């Protein structure tokens, strides 16, 4: 079966990574405009780098949970396209390969001047030179608000062909990912939501499984294996 899975912050929350919209979340003491927009980076690159250095250090100490491992097992039995809105590497740590990071990754660095990419060190600074052009234009390889997500052509193609679309731990508030279920449904796919509560786009799903991802995802994967 062709399956496309979209994961959001909810799958990483149980590994200790705070969600974007949580009351006690990672972003609480920072305005989005200051740390997650191109304008914020232009105004105060040192602040943005400090913020992402902190996120990178926190993510480096996190470990995948049962939901991440279950998706590795799913890929062994089905034709799986795994898309994540998360910028951590928990899917890869669990053993998933070819993960589509539509919002970038904390492990990546990007030159804002020439577009060169390279592995990010744990600590990044505004005056870090680009390895390719030597200009001090280093930024995190993250899709900020107002920027276009990565790999959209590949994602839409997978949604066109998928037989089952599952969204795990997503809020349904961030576009274009919030439109994936509706698109897949129109193309004839069954759409399933696994979440702690209904997402903002809950009406786009045929059915939902409510509960923590570390429990619901392994149970769902096991049910698919049973047929």
From TrEMBL:
List the top taxonomic levels of the source.
Bacteria, Pseudomonadati, Pseudomonadota, Alphaproteobacteria, Rhodobacterales
Q: Which gene encodes it?
A: cobB
Its GO CC terms?
Answer: cytoplasm
By what name is this protein known? NAD-dependent protein deacylase
Supply the alphabetized keyword list.
Answer: Cytoplasm, Metal-binding, NAD, Transferase, Zinc
- Record's InterPro entries? DHS-like_NAD/FAD-binding_dom, NAD-dep_sirtuin_deacylases, Sirtuin, Sirtuin_cat_small_dom_sf, Sirtuin_class_III, Ssirtuin_cat_dom
Q: What is known of its domains?
A: 2 residues (Tyr-52 and Arg-55) present in a large hydrophobic pocket are probably involved in substrate specificity. They are important for desuccinylation activity, but dispensable for deacetylation activity.
- Please list the residues that bind Zn(2+): 111, 114, 130, 133
Q: Which organism is it from?
A: Paracoccus subflavus
- UniProt-annotated binding residues for NAD(+): 8-27, 85-88, 169-171, 195-197, 213
